[in-house]
Amino acid sequence: MDALAHQFDDLDQQHEAASLGMWVFLATEIMFFGALFLGYAIYRGMYPAAFAAASHHLDIVLGTTNTALLLCSSLTMALAVHATQLGTRKAATIFLILTILLGSAFLGIKGVEYFHKYEERLIPGSNFYFEGADGRHTQIFFSFYFVMTGMHALHMIIGVGLLSIMILMTSRGRFSPDHYSPVEMSGLYWHFVDIVWVFLFPLLYLVDRSGGFK
Amino acid sequence: MTGHVVRPKTYYSVFSGLLVLLVATVGVAYLHLGELNIVAAMSIAVIKAVLIILYFMHVRYSPRLIWLFVGAGFFWLGIMFALTFSDYLTRASAG
Question: Within a domain: residue A23?
Fold first, then answer.
């Protein structure tokens, strides 16, 4: 198969065009998540005590574990791209599978956390119940929690799907040291989703853990 | 071969750095720093994001045009935050 599409001068130009296109897409993703972060920041500024009280109901051990899992998955993703660049198919497949496993473990833990919130009646809606003065405002925190982590989890699920396709294409020998852009672009997407979590984790789980407010 | 091939050693170093920063961000959260808690948390998050972007996402080894597009994405995010907070943070009843 010819790695170079006819509209490009050379492989470098083709690769740069792919990266550029991916970054334009990621810029729209920055704005998408950015709006959620902005809304969160405004309401946290309005109701700092309620946000602190609500944040204490998140499991910091599970949150930290999940952050570590995602950072590990970013490493295996980077190594998968590296293996594909060198043309070592077997290593690339193993690293891609590891990345999917780590991502799935993250999603599993997220599911456990969601279930705990369901049991504690902390899912916003008619069944929501929060002990304390700021019950209504803590519901705003949990609305942001579920929308932001939910959108993040959806991106992870899409990422797992993308990587599955990459494994299939790798096994069919579709990539070579001259042509590995799809794996690298999937990697950019995966790392971006990791970055979103890098900000979500301290903002949602670590609000006022030292008890400075009150 | 197209593109820049980063040595795995670099990836391992960046990964170790990210784990250290994760421990740091959890640890700092338990210190009584008042308003500085959020500043510390966000500073660490920004450093982690920059490490991921520069090394895992290969931006450090990418052409200037890629730098420009990455920068533009975050620059526009900055505009959105700056303009919105120039309103919310200057309201008389803010707090």
Answer: no
Residues of B in contact with A45 (CB under 8 A): 88-89, 94
**pLDDT tens, position by position, A34-53:** 999 999 999 999 999 999 99
For the entire predicted model, the pTM comes to 0.94
Residues B53, B72 share a domain? no
* 3-state secondary structure (DSSP) of residue A179: strand
Class of residue A128 by CB neighbours under 10 A (exposed 0-12, middle 13-18, buried 19+): middle
pLDDT at A133: 73
pLDDT-above-70 percentage for chain A: 98
Cβ pairs bridging A and B (under 8 Å) = 142
CA distance B75 to B58: 19
Q: Are A67 and A130 in contact (CB under 8 A)?
A: no
Helix H segments across A87-126?
A: 89-119
Q: How many helices (H) and strands (E) does chain B have?
A: 3, 0
Is the same domain home to B16 and B47? yes
Residue A139: which CATH number?
1.20.120.80
